[in-house]
Model the fold of this input.
Amino acid sequence: MDFVWLAVVTAFFAGSYFLIQLLASLQGEG
Amino acid sequence: MTANGFLQLALALGLVLACVRPLGWYMARVYSRSPGAVERRLFRLLGIDPTAEMTWQRYAGAVLAFGFVSVLAVYGVQRLQAVLPLNPEGHPAVSADSSFNTAVSFATNTNWQGYGGESTMSYLTQMTALAVQNFLSAAAGMAVLVALIRGFARRSVDTVGNFWVDLVRGTVYVLLPLSLVLAVALVSQGVPQTVSASHEVALVEPTADADGKPVATQRIAVGPVASQLAIKQLGTNGGGFFNTNSAHPLENPTPLSNLLQLVAILLVPAALCWTFGEMVGDRRQGWAVLAAMAVIFLPLLGLTVWAEHQPNPALTALGVDQAAGNMEGKETRLGVPNSALWAVATTAASNGSVNSMHDSYTPLGGLAPLWLMQLGEVVFGGVGSGLYGMLVFALVAVFIAGLMVGRTPEYLGKKIGAFEIKMASLVVLLPCAMVLIGTALGVSAEDGKTGVLNAGPHGFSEVLYAYSSAANNNGSAFAGLGANTPFYNGTLGLAMLVGRFGVMLPVLAVAGSLARKKHTPPGPGTLPTHTPLFVFLLVSVVVVVGALSFLPTLALGPVAEHLMMRS
Done:
């Protein structure tokens, strides 16, 4: 079960990193 | 309410107000000054270059990296606590889903607790995982706020500060000294601070258990409570050492410990308003934001205090004396005023600690704490997070005012454009979406429904409260919900993550965007943002957004329950 929960955490933070890129592109910096 | 009760409320709020200016001024100095000799050595030891400024993207990346490592560290300590030292009670490893929920909860400054502290966590887990995150998650929230304030204060630059420097400064110069003083004061009131095991003592009146076996002794849990309790309040964390939080006689032994903790809940969030005014060079702006918070806080406090002084009709019918008001779930030694003030303060300030059980409040008495969380935790709110949330609402307020008079909206000399409003929309809408989607799942999925211990509107309120608390990073529980299951641990954990980092990233994007803009001197068309008119506008925006988003759910929960109770 550890693998599942750690995968959830990793996926969330990895996705958030791409959110930074997305927001930056909205700002016209992408 | 008696004069005594009124005086106790006035004393607590007066003490907070008296500390706003000195503490706010001090925090502005902490975040603005050049590093001293000791600080330079500390940064060198940690490998931090204090002069290296970050763009908002790098700042946000550091926030995420820190959050990721924090979650992993707290998760790991819980899973390994059975083989680690400082576990005198021999607690086994925490389950995987509960470890995930608790790790996310403490790393996001939520401190929602699906477990009972004294029966689940070793001292090592309490001290090195939970208490450490109490400091660091609070300091991370303050760091993001300071980055946003720099966005307003700076002109035509790409950078908003250095996250690691801000994190260290908030921890070392603000939270640690305040916590040390408060912890010592709490120890003086009888709060334990020890690593010895629980004590077995003889009962004054021996009794029998459910099977009829005689019981002559009980175990009294102790531990390193005071050190965790101090930062739990000052960092608006709220996670209790004991399961019953600050209703436990060893976590809140005396009237003075209750007063100190109440003040500590609101202290830093209120003082940060002054810090904001100081750092943008116009203290009136800080007062205006603080006034807006107070204008929302005080009527809701009045509603809860009034509602809890009313008798419960169901108990009246049984002939129960309710002269003191609705005392179900409240400590007799604290009474209605101190319980109600705590309930409103802890939900306004994104703290989440409790000294009474909110599930036992009257429907209207429980509605106010619930709605305060749903407003986005911007009425004082969490340390840092509350004020950056309120400043985002201020951007929305000036945008709406600009639309009404047909001028380009400005706030603190910065023109507010489409990008800032898009980011503000994300900040406002993401937690709302998590609350509503989570509640819908909780009351419709089988795994969700099995955890609801009460039928009808009250059961609905319990689920709504849980997701409102998680998505807005409050952490208090309404109770009556069996939430330590994979379903609730998982969905509430996700709500906490989105409510924290899904808000922080757009806030930092706004900070970066504003820092790049030139300063526009105020003109005849500029809306003054330090006046009562702006305070009214800001309060209206917060209240209208909160009402539009949540009135239907409140109608299904506490409002329906109130009408049923009175019919």
